[in-house]
Structure formats: C-alpha cells, structure tokens
Amino acid sequence: MRSGIGFSLLFIATLGSGLQAQSADEFGRLQPGQMVRVRTVGKSRFVTRLGGVQGDAPTELFARAEVPFDPVRVDSLWIRGRATWTGAIVGGAIMTPLAFLAWAEVCDFGNEFGGCEQWGLVTGLALGTGAAGALLGAGVGALIPKWRLRYARERDAVLGPFVAPGRVGVAVRF
User: Fold this and answer.
1) Alpha carbons 80 and 10: distance in angstroms, whole number
2) Which tens digits make up the pLDDT trace of 101-118?
3) Are both 76 and 152 inside the same structural domain?
4) Closest Cα partner for 40 from 76, 79, 78, 80?
5) 174 Cβ partners below 8 Å, 6+ apart?
6) Which domain holds residue 98?
C-alpha cells in the first residue's frame, strides 16, 4: 500500500515537468535577415531567415521568419556566420614559421662568410609575411560558412515512471 502511494506521488510530481517558457531575449542579439538553424523540442530541424525590420522585438523576428516558429519550442538555435577569424589564425600560423625559415635561408645565402647576422631583419620580414598569410587566410575563411551556437536549452535529468509488461520502476531521462 505504501509503495503504491509513493509511486503515485512520484508519478504526479513528474507530470509537471515539461517545456519551460523562455523569453526571446535569451537568444541574444538577433538581426533581421540572419540565417538561423533551429532544432525544436520535437527533434525537427529547419533553416530559416529571420524576418522583420531593425528594432523589432525578438518575438517579431521569429513570427516574421520565412518559417515562423515559437521560441518556447526551441531546443537549440544556431546563427550562420563566416570563418574569417579561423582562416586568419590558420593562415598566420602556417605562414609565419615557413617565412622565418625562408628568410633565414636568404640571409645565410647572402652572407658569404658564414651564418646570418641580421636576425632582427629576418624576424621582422617573417612577421610581415605571416601577417600577409593571416590576411590571405581571412579572405579564404570569409568564403566558408560556419554555424555558431547561440542558444541551447539546459538539459535536466527528469525522473518519470517506467511501466512495461511485468515491470514497474522509475526512468531517468536527460
């Protein structure tokens, strides 16, 4: 009898766990015309462009999107941007050491009595070449789209009743 009452209380307590209402402000600064990838609580996923005009409330951006959606049902929201910074870092990281080796060889080749004595000049030229590589990498990165996570619903462990033929228990869902 006691276990039946305890199980009933557990069942009633877990029925209340559902979608938490969130405001559209939790998604951060969004602009009209941005491409977003939305995954809803029901595991459906779609890509849409936010609608509205500059200065609209965030709920208006969602309601006027190409595929309108309710912010309460959003599980995760991704914003499409560009990989400019990643390209700049990769371009600079690759080009600087290669340029240092190349300029050191040029310095050694130009000095007929042995090693290079102009290491300050070699370092400056290598850093300048590395900066040019970073600019080139940023240009390439600007051509590559990149999705950035803007919002993710917090996942809590939810206790719920588990009923199967011949078994009764408690299930933990994440």
Assistant:
1) 43
2) 999 888 888 776 677 788
3) yes
4) 76
5) 155, 156, 157, 158
6) 84-141
